Amino acid sequence: MRGRGTGRGRAQGPGRGQGRDRGRGPGAGAAAVAGVTLVALLGAGCGPGTATPAFGRTAAHDEIVAAVEGAGLPESALPEIGGPTPSGATPRPTPSTDRERAAERAAACSTGWQYIGPVAEGSRAGFDKAVAALTGKRWNQTQRQVEKLDEKGGTSVSVTLDKQGWTMYARHHSARQGLSMDIISFQASENSCMAKLTDKERESLLGDDGEQP
What we know:
Number of strands: 6
Radius of gyration: 17 Å
Shape: globular
């Protein structure tokens, strides 16, 4: 069964903890993963990394998509982050809030792929295979964390990688208790580009209302 997500691949210190999502609905799990990814991407710009002209957003995007497709991960049906916009797609509206404007600037520094949908058999193995493919493209894995979500085998895996001034956060979040679902994402950002966001823009992205008082 196919779900909807972002991308064109096919089918947001290491340790193991006990599930903190037990008893929550699937929306809470998705929001938690997206929030962690956003905080991590904002933090990536604080480092000293600088990208070389030979490796940029297009190259990072192509490597993510190739790794996802090669690993046989579930198909995502929505436009890719940093990829081509499908013909007939509705144009994005002009940003009208602080948060929307900051999000547009952050998006220009980033690329990625995401799937959110029903549990896909073998997706965890596919995720590990995609990470291995990325390390084969000289993405350096700097951190890996695995967390137990529930008593039915649900897990959350987070991997951090870097390459030539870029930082990537790869996540596989599979809940098996309640309404089962998979959230799989590979999000990369250029450190020097993210560092140009102002403190106000960062606060706006992390805020709840989108507009600062």
